[in-house]
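Suppose you are handed a protein chain with no further information: no name, no annotation, nothing but its sequence. What can you learn? This example shows the usual starting point.
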Amino acid sequence: MEEIVFTTNLEQNIRLMQEIFQGDNTLVVRRAQSPHGLTCAAFFFDGMVNGIAINQSIVRPIVSSTFRRATAEELAQTILQINDSRVETDNNKLFASFLYGDTVIFTEGESRPVVVNTKGFALRSASEPENERVLSGPREGFTECFMPNLALIRRRLNDKRLKFTFLRIGTRTNTVVCLCYLDGVCEHKLIGEIKKRLSQIDPDSILDSNYLSERIRDHRWSPFPTMGTTERPDVVAARLVEGRCAIIVDGSPVVLTAPYLLQECFQSNDDYYVNFLQANLSRILRLTGFVFSVCVPAVYVALMLYHRELVPARLLFAVSAAQRGVPLPSGWETLLMLFVLEALKEAGARTPGAMGQTMSIVGGLVLGQAAVSARFAAAPTVIVVAIAGVTGLMVPKLQTAALYLRFGLLAAAAAYGLYGVGIAMALVLAWLCNMHSFSIPYLLNLVPRVGIEHEDAYLRAPWFFMRHDRFPVKKEDRHH
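A reasonable first move is to predict its three-dimensional structure. Written in structure tokens, the prediction is:
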């Protein structure tokens, strides 16, 4: 692309801007001239600006001005009556601001444009995120608009050490990305590592935070998340206080946080807004639910195929009677029912509104009852699959990992029985021990090899017992 050079002739600048955005019918050129001879032209995109701000803060001051000619500095600092106006000589920054809703003003006799903040596009209210609802606590959530998201964080952290570092990523979208951290609390090594990873990627477009997450996270092929995601400002503020970094992407309500540890998958926002006894009970249920979701189908298949002697006699007789007449072995039967369960979940998630929930519940009941009545599947298998499906919903951040582990352990159980399940679990544990999130062990505080003194790993201690941050930082970096 040829270098764009503006001149002191206003008409030439107008023609140049119209040539650059030829074919874009949303471009508006607003000419304004005062009785004393000051002539200006304002460029903006229809639907991206605040019309009242343009009329009252740009057009009216120019028309009522007593200047015959004005420099760019005089136009920005003396004539215009708006809180954010500047002279811009860098064309890249000029067009980045212009395409994002700012107004560009040229005046006769001046080649340097003035950029005025007149953004006025429609915004979604900061309502509570649908997938992170809480019983008690703040109800605000991030939106797709960039600066209001930063304001939500700033309002909760009234600390002068809170830093926002802006970057632009994407050769076509030129998306604004903000790296947020608390200076002196977050380790400089972590900040440098995140900046390095962000600078090394060169995508064509960034339309959501996941575009970045998949590129900069550790262990990209792992189903276990190594970067946190949240739509809640209070969660981001808490993680910043702990010494982590947050990455905010313009156009996405999902904020990334790093590092991210396995223990956080079993933590919830409610844990810190309710009594610690209730919070700890919920954590135990989540951990138990995840283990049940992953292991119950595999253990059931292993017992039915290889280890029937371990099943109590009455239970074995009941299961055997229920399986009489079923054409498929236990392994294939369980696999098929798990596939049907996942298909129902996906269909329910893609169906709009309450119809999706109704379809998932009614479809599961109807299909399950029909499969048992037609002797296509045994009732115990349907019960086992239902337990796995329900308990898997208790830890939403690990649903992908639970899905892969569930089918992997099922295959191991069908091949080698309980021995296969044990070996597969040992391999998964060894894999988790080897994982890191931005140089922090993924199982920090959960295994003795990397454990430290901590009050918020397995269970949450009462607030009056809390002496340490929930995430370790160097002592010399702590200011309080």
